[in-house]
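Notes from hallway chat w/ T.B., transcribed later so I don't forget. T.B. wanted the structure written out for a chain they're using in a teaching module, and asked if we could keep both sequence and structure tokens in one place. Agreed to drop them here.
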Amino acid sequence: MDYLVNLSLVKPVPELDARMKKAGVTVRRALAPELELATGWVREKFSSGWASETAVAFARQPPTCFLATRSEKLIGFACHESIARGFFGPTGVDEAARGEGIGHALLLACLLDLKTMGYGYAIIGDVGPSAFYERTVGATPIPNSAPGVYAGLLNTNE
């Protein structure tokens, strides 16, 4: 099921920014020369389908992929506008770095970017951890949204 986020309610969270800084985590827009490194990492940690969507986000100008790094190493990513306009995802954080708020910081970076682009709402496609999105950004389920844009997707399992 897809979820809807009212972007007028999404604001920066200074406490989260401070938490990222204290943990030595930087969240920033991806740079074109990082395409191979980032898509390879996404393929290895998550799936080839997500790597493909990440490549699409890199192809946009400016890229709609955000990276989380610590000590110049990739530990998380989030994209928007890869499967469809106004959609958030895919996103993922390295297993060893989960629980630190990195996913939340990446989500906000993407949603605030969509808001800056002029969107009033964002769609989170095929939501997995629904409670996380409901709690962090007030996302609500979209009735009759499955399978949505994913209908007819070729099997991308490795």
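Follow-up for T.B.: The chain has one domain: 3-149. Might be a good example for the class.
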